[in-house]
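re: ur question from yesterday

yeah so i grabbed the chain u mentioned. its 471 aa long if i counted rite. heres the sequnce exactly as i have it in my notes:
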Amino acid sequence: MTILAELQALLGADHVLTGADTDSYTLDWRGRYRGRALAVVRPGSAEAVASVVQLCGRHGVPLVPQGGNTGLCGGATPADDGKAVLLSLARLNRVRGIDTDNDTITVEAGCILQAVQQAAEQAGRLFPLSLAAEGSCTIGGNLATNAGGTQVLRYGNTRDLTLGLEVVTADGEIWHGLRGLRKDNTGYDLRDLYIGSEGTLGIITAATLKLFPLPVARCTALLAVPDVESGVQLLGRARQGFGAALTGFELMAGNCLEAVVRLFPQQRLPFSGESAQSPWFALLELSDSESEAHARERFETVLGEAIEVGLATDAAIAENITQSKALWHLRESIPLAEAELGKSIKHDVSLPISRIADFVRNTNALLQERFPGIGHVIFGHLGDGNLHYNCTRAPGQEEAALLAQQPQVYGIVHDSVHAHGGSISAEHGVGQLKIDELPRYKDTIELALMRRIKKALDPAGIMNPGKVVRA
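ran it thru and got these structure tokens back, copy pasting raw so excuse formatting
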């Protein structure tokens, strides 16, 4: 019996896709990677996932796990040799339980992030992970890449929001680690090892996640700021003035929002005149546990002082939830506007906040010197030092010509990141996009330890090969 026949016998023919039925799974969200799969399988339980892993192990067939297929580094796309089985976790989409006394929610890996947020809210709680793709990305993918998003400043990355995991190992065993404990000091932290491993060590099938009280009030504002240095100083003032109540702090270059309102006319900047032409904008959010009046007073005081000392030139404060959502929609539409404008060279980097202004200034200059006219599309989560530093076509340049420059652009940007004490991957993962970049910047001992871990947990090398680290 062939492996396809065995998979069909195991899962049912309807859940083993071949040929053209696999096309939507084998193209990544950015359209940069097109692979081929022996089959796409859609198991409906952790036990079925384990059986698929065991079967592939016996046949020596590689496995590529996939969640919502919204990744930006090709981490969930198979190679183009057609040898791998792509394992979709879309059918593992149940909320298994909510414990409001323990403030936890246990969900399967195929749950859409937005569905988890809604389930938490219905229980009177907040699940704070929030990112632009939340309507289509899955918890499994968030865990696989240790996703960040807009509220890392207060609540942390996905790893910080996770208490326990259920994982199918490379041997096809199930680790039942769905413990809702804040303290468990009984050995190595396997949970943190699997989170961020992009399916190269095992397949996460469920997770127990932290919940938080719903905030009593939220205040959101968009500020026009003159430069990155002012944005950094404004962040410092906001931290001092709001403390732990500061939920989000985003920084966006003016051309990012200009593209959004130009391409999506239904959206508007809440400014006119010179403020609308500001070179930079900051988006702040405060979550208050006392009252709307208390939140508003604190917000207006801190922002008023920032304008008085010149850190901001104008501010638009949302008056209601609709206006707040509109401000966040501007920010979250930047990647969509980028996609409308064509392919770009993307960077997801993190830096010490104190060095971000120098990094932007120096790296922009280096790129302009090497590639005159290259575009800079810079935005990200200033509050946690994460920038999406993207490069677009120079005027008159063809898309293919820009993409041909990617190796040199990567070298300039990543060398600059490294020189400023940063990391070349902050929240998008490594995937296949950056796998060959790691040896240039990762400590040799660190990289060797990663390879040993991969070999120990996946000795046959079948778990998402060609991603994160080479054997």
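noticed a couple things. The chain has four domains: 3-88, 95-213, 217-338, 343-430+437-458. also The radius of gyration is 23 Å.
anyway ttyl
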